[in-house]
Amino acid sequence: MVRKTMEVFWTRLLKPPSGGHTVTVPFPHHVDPSSVTEPLGKIPSHGSRASLLGGSFDPAFRRGGGFRAREGYANVAPASKPGGMYMPNTHWTWSFAIVTLIQTLVTLGLECYIFANFQIQEIPNDSPSSKTIPTFLALYSFGFLYELVLVYDALRMKNTIQVIGLCICNIGLLIYGAVQVNQIRTAVSVLADMDTISPVVWAQSEPFLIIIPCIVALGTFLMTFVAWKLYDEFAWTIYKHISADLQMKRRYLTYQIYIALLKFDFFFFLGFTVQFLVLVSSAKMDAEFALTVAAIPVTIIILVCGAWFVRRETTAGMVCIILLLFAAMGYFIFKLFRMYDPLTSPQYLPARPSMTFFAIITLVLIVITIINACLCTNNFNRGLKPHINKKKNKSEEKTTELSSNLTQVPSRMMID
């Protein structure tokens, strides 16, 4: 009797009214659907209301789409495509990128004018002084372009250490710009005595050569200020990546310093080598010239392998890299000795101040790189490898489903 009464109650309650389309409502678990002789009742669904409980139509609600639509979530496309090219996405990352870009464009424009003016008025000759100005200007321009690449890489990887290193590197470019003034004055003076260039070239170039260090000094100040702001911004990213483990954060910091040093080692080694090949050894193709040319690809391989071994935590590989870095340190000490040895110093005179600057900076970087390589090797097998080798989570590569596709959570129960 009770069972029959329940069946009648449900069938009358769920009886469809005239008009409107219907949606099937599941039967309660305590009623046996097989005992029902009439079709199950249906509830009308009206397009003008989001719920039978009242209220206006909710524009976030969409029919279809399975569970997500039934729960009232709106399907919104992600803001950006996963795996796309990195773009600065905060006020300070944009500021750092814009400051370095403007600095690069202005200095490149001035360097190009000086180079063109020199090339137009010079009479071609084989003097080492004739190669000094083009080499300095080309190397200086390459320095700013390489720095711009490292800026993009530092912002993309949110590498605080590399950002700080870029500010220090900019100070190095500032010093080199100041050294460049005296070097070009000397080269123009030598060429003027040889009647291969007019002394007017120096008067035309000097104001621009003085402006360049001033612009770099201003850029260094602005980069340092923005880097201070980025330090706080990137600190949260490192915290999320490594967690609050202080020991692990120190190991990760050592790893970041080591990777950044390898990138700067490449530029200063290349700068020294190019000056040596063009200004010193270009006149004589001896064994030293051949070894210096061969050292360029070998150095690139060493730096790439140094980064690869530390990521894979290969102890034997890191020991080899450290030994090779000691060999590189001995090479630069030998070059410094030859530059100031009375027997060999004359061949280095056209570029000695600039080469000395690059050699000293490279030596300092190699010493610091060796120390950090030893620290990184000591940190092997202590839990850092998964952090530096793991791929980005989907939540980091693209916005998650809950964060991007769900515009709002329904505040009331909704019945389809």
From TrEMBL:
- InterPro entries linked to this entry: UPF0658_Golgi
Provide the protein name: TRP C-terminal domain-containing protein
Give the residue ranges for region: Disordered: 391-416
- Which keywords belong to this entry? Membrane, Transmembrane, Transmembrane helix
Q: Where are the transmembrane segments?
A: 94-116, 136-154, 161-179, 208-231, 252-277, 289-309, 316-334, 354-375
Which PANTHER family does this entry report, sorted A to Z? Answer: UPF0658 GOLGI APPARATUS MEMBRANE PROTEIN C1952.10C-RELATED
Give a GO cellular-component term. Golgi apparatus
